[in-house]
Structure formats: C-alpha cells, structure tokens
UniProtKB/TrEMBL annotation:
Main location: membrane
Signal peptide: none
The species this protein was found in: Selenomonas montiformis
Recorded family membership: Belongs to the binding-protein-dependent transport system permease family. CysTW subfamily.
Protein name listed in UniProt: ABC transporter permease
Record keywords: Cell membrane, Membrane, Transmembrane, Transmembrane helix, Transport
Gene3D superfamilies reported for this sequence: MetI-like
Taxon lineage: Bacteria, Bacillati, Bacillota, Negativicutes, Selenomonadales
C-alpha cells in the first residue's frame, strides 16, 4: 500500500470513531430510558401500564425490523431537515442514532429483567418510590449487564457506520468503496477490514473488562 493512503486511512478511522461515539452517546441518552420504560411498564412491574407497554413495544419492534440500508435511504428527507445534507459523516449519524435507539432499549430491558424481583419487593416494602427503585435498585443491579449489552450495540454501530459509506457517509466504509472497490485497490480494502477488526476487538475487550468490574455477583 502506498504511503499516500496512510493519511486517508487515518482520516477515515477518525470519521468512523466520531460517528460511532457521537451516535452512541445520543442513542444511549434516549435508548436507556426507553429500556427502563419497556421494563417497568410491563405486567406486574412498578409502573404497570400494559396498553402503553404494548404500543411502545410495537413501535420499537417496527423500527428494529427495518434493514439499516433501507432505513438510511428512507429517512433521507429527515436527515436533510436535521443536518442540512444527506451526505457526509454528520448526516450518517441520523440513521445510526435512529437505528440504535430501539436496539439499546431492548438490550437494556433484557438486562433489567435479570434483576431479581425480590429486590424490588424489598424496596417497595421499605417505602421506596418507583423512581428511587429505578435509580437505586434496578439500574445499579443491572449495570454490568447493560454495559455488556451496550458493547454489542457499539460493535453493531461500527458495522453500520461502514455500511453508511455506501451512500457517502464517510469513514472506513466510504474509503473501502471509493478506493478499494471502485479503483480496484485490494490493498486498501484489506487495510480497512483489518482496522475494523482491530477496532471491534478493542471495543469488545474494553466492554468485557468494564462489565466484569461492575458485576455485583
């Protein structure tokens, strides 16, 4: 691989990290409360509301069922309305965030379901409010599982950010398509794949380490 590709690879890696990091922060800020609602409004839970729970679950499932490449194209008007363009790194974050929110919601819901209900009953017996139970019982007890689940979401975002390169989203995917595929540069394609593998391995290692440290069992 020629030396002139190194700056391009560095720039593309920076764009990928930027897309994934910002998308993950915004999606988590919405997705984690969504997961809490999905769990706590279920039947027999502290904020039981079966009708709202079914409606919320149906919306989440509907968005999750849309393949990411179709979602990117379908919301181009929304992307333009939010960031003023449908092309570029910032524009690619809109579908990334939208796709990640329901994914995070379901992952958080799964982690919260693993918290023994006896802990919730004990908190209720001591007069704790639903908000106190969420903050002091459910989230702390499920934190290790939530971190592990969010690690999976980050890895998924890395793959989806590469896919965003198909419509000019920037990052390693865009570089692989423009140079590796369109200009017949297998060395560039191989380099981007290796970088993505290393990035995913690093994310998984850090996520596993944090999950182990936060595990209360």
């Amino acid at each position: 691989m020629s030396s002139d590709m190194i700056p391009l690879l560095s720039k593309a890696l920076g764009e990928t990290v930027y897309m994934v990091a910002v998308s993950m922060v915004i999606a988590s800020a919405i997705g984690i409360p969504l997961g809490v609602l999905l769990h706590t409004t279920g039947r027999g839970q502290i904020l039981e509301a079966p009708v709202w729970n079914r409606i919320l679950g149906a919306v989440v499932n509907a968005i999750r069922s849309i393949p990411f490449i179709i979602l990117m194209v379908a919301i181009i008007p929304l992307t333009r309305a939010i960031v003023g363009s449908a092309i570029g790194t910032t524009a690619a974050m809109v579908p990334l965030i939208l796709a990640s929110i329901p994914f995070i919601g379901r992952q958080v819901e799964t982690s919260l379901k693993e918290v023994p209900y006896g802990l919730v009953e004990a908190a209720l017996a001591m007069g704790a409010t639903p908000l106190q139970i969420i903050r002091r019982v459910l989230l702390p007890e499920a934190l290790s599982g939530i971190v592990a689940q969010l690690t999976t979401v980050i890895i998924s975002l890395v793959g989806e950010s590469a896919m965003a390169g198909a419509i000019g989203g920037g990052g390693l995917g865009d570089l692989a398509i423009r140079y590796g595929y369109q200009r017949f540069r297998p060395d560039v394609m191989l380099a981007t794949v290796i970088i993505l593998i290393i990035l995913v391995q690093a994310v998984q290692f850090i996520g596993n380490m944090l999950a182990r440290k936060l595990d209360r069992k």
